[in-house]
Write a structure and sequence with these properties.
Elements: H1 4-13, E1 16-20, H2 27-42, E2 46-50, E3 80-84, H3 94-99, E4 105-110, E5 121-124, H4 131-141, H5 148-161
Parallel strand pairs: 1-2, 1-3, 3-4, 4-5
Helix pairs in contact: 1-4, 2-4, 2-5, 4-5
Length: about 170
């Protein structure tokens, strides 16, 4: 498994990303992909976010929710792929997985214990309450300014996966 610093260096050194999350997205998935999207855009990176299924209406208030593409609308060329909140590749859904086969490199960032470490770069922190918490740490490591858009996205993810701070994680 890689260190978070290695993932940060990879993201800083490259410019073209497709960020994906799991099918039937929840708040951690949506918040994580949007938080990373805003951070990468702040760095001047080319970024597209793709989810197999629509963003649940409860998360449409998040800045950038309207830029999330379906597999049918994604740009076909995927230089570098970032999987968020996915224990394995198949978690993104069948339609999206078919479109991801031509990638150059893949990054896997997750907090689930059953993660299969399927990417070229893997960072799985099972003690994290949510993938959004890991993305916060990644953004700090990359020295990206924490904006209101990033903060709201990551907070939505953390609130979802902690049951509004009621779960032990």
């Amino acid at each position: 498994m890689n260190q978070l610093k290695e993932i940060a260096e990879f993201l800083l050194e490259n410019d073209d990303f497709t960020v994906v999350g799991h099918a039937m997205p929840d708040g951690d998935c949506v918040g994580s992909v949007l938080g990373l999207y805003h951070a990468l855009k702040q760095l001047g990176k080319k970024v597209q976010v793709v989810l197999q299924d629509a963003v649940p209406p409860i998360y449409l208030y998040l800045a950038g929710a309207d830029i999330i593409k379906t597999p049918q609308l994604m740009e076909n060329h995927t230089e570098n792929l970032v999987f968020l909140d996915c224990g394995d590749e198949e978690r993104v859904g069948d339609d999206l997985l078919l479109r991801l086969a031509q990638r150059k490199l893949a990054v896997n960032i997750d907090h689930h214990q059953a993660n299969s470490l399927f990417a070229d770069y893997n960072y799985v922190e099972t003690n994290a309450a949510a993938t959004a918490e890991i993305i916060y740490n990644l953004i700090q490591t990359m020295q990206v300014e924490l904006t209101p858009e990033i903060s709201a996205s990551l907070l939505a993810g953390i609130i979802m996966d902690t049951g509004s701070f009621m779960n032990s994680n």
